[in-house]
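Table S2 (continued). Query chain:
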Amino acid sequence: MGGWDRLILVKNRRQRLSGNIVDLHARRIYPGTVEWADGRIVRMQAEPGKSYPHYLAPGLVDAHIHIESSLLPPAEFARWAVCHGTVATVSDPHEIANVLGVAGVNYMIRDGARTPFKFNFGAPSCVPATTFETAGARLGVTAVTRLLARREIKFLSEVMNFPGVLARDPALLAMIAAAQRRGKVVDGHAPGLCGKVAARYAAAGITTDHECFTLPEALDKLAAGMKILMREGSAARNLSALISLLKTHPEHVMFCCDDLHPDLLMQRHLDEHVRRALQSGADRFDVLRAASVNPVKHYGLEVGLLRVGEAADFIVFTGWKNFRVRRTYLRGALVASEGRSRLPRQPSPQPNKFKATARKPADFVVPAAREVPTGSRAKTKNRPVLQVIEAINGQLITRHRREIPAIINGAVVTDLKRDILKIAVVSRYKAQAPIALGFIHGFGLKAGALASSVAHDSHNVVAVGVDDVALCAAINLVLKARGGLSVVGRGGSAVLPLPIAGLMSGLDGRTVARRYTQLDQQAKRLGSKLDAPFMTLSFMALLVIPDLKMSDQGLFSAPRWAFTPVLAP
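Corresponding output:
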């Protein structure tokens, strides 16, 4: 018998807990007692006249999250998520699927099943996300259809190839049809789509979107029949822009993180969404429904909602203004109390796929046709234009900058005064594949380099640096570890190994969070002004998010849906 089983089994003994019961279905709050046995609620009794300082409510559900982005495997993620009142997630395993294929999906399901936490995994629809990058695996219609037939798979994961949907790609439409035949919903991913285009995307069978950056975009998608997942994660933070939807469309919104690095997971999860939503003045019942009832109903989850006959999955909290989760119960077991997890630590297997070998600084030279003085802005006939990615703090989208290149000795170089650094993507799936090189603005580094094998969605090695030596050193640290995050600069270097698919650590969650925080602080000491430089870096290779991104095959323009030269005529 596993560790968590001992938590659950109380030998059929009936248990009870009193408090102010938050009935989200009848939209009322009343003092009473909840009784449960064998993990299910058997009785709820009102107690008129009683007074309690705490409240009982359904547990929180993250409507869209990639567990891999926490750098923790599912069983370890669960240990810390329950401290914040989370009892379930709707999880897309396409990160590990891009590395290991169906075997990666199976790994996530098996690891998650070792805990009472209710993971709900989908079938990845876009592995790889595009044909413009090298991934470790490919999931076609047959593989996805087989996954959808399984009981453990609850939905078709985000259909991020929106140009393919709009073009009526037969393979994508076949996957959507396979999900619909089994009564499973289809998640969307369509940044920037509005109006008639959004309506066409939704009409293909897409039911949600978590990529809305503005309120008008969200309203267009709601009008098209989609539900909106309001995202607040480590890199993308859209809650403030969308929070008014709780007042205008309360039945059609949910909360999600999408990606949450371990440092933030130690501090918060959906409890922060709830807290901020309550402080915004939104109706308390609408807020808690968005955090529990709405995702359970939309995805058909087997998660209790504090009703007789359902699983005893609930939280105890205090305060409506400063919402604090005090206890979390899963299947009737107390799994977290006063910020301390009661779930046992369980070491996880470490599957991986990593073939890349060490590189040298000369591999990172960007040749140019002619010489231009560093930082020169003088207009010259036929001068080439440097196409530069502009990273935006708190967003996954980028801007497309056009700059005068700094060229020395026949090579395009970085320009620290203008914050134009070099970005590189190295294929992890081939020993010595050509390196894709470009330039990026917004990281602010004054020295050194950062590198990561967490590079959505194919998870090649992405790096940004001030010079070729630092860039090469940071990448080689990641290659030597067969996956990880690294920092090099000002006489020091550090790496956090990620031996599970190059995405996750096998260490205790607090240790991972502490070491990640140290890397984050090192990156900021090198000059980065980004809130989460590693999370931002991880999305610089995600081609399906506009505008400019970098794959292992070159610089990519999402609006054009094609590669574009680093140096344009």
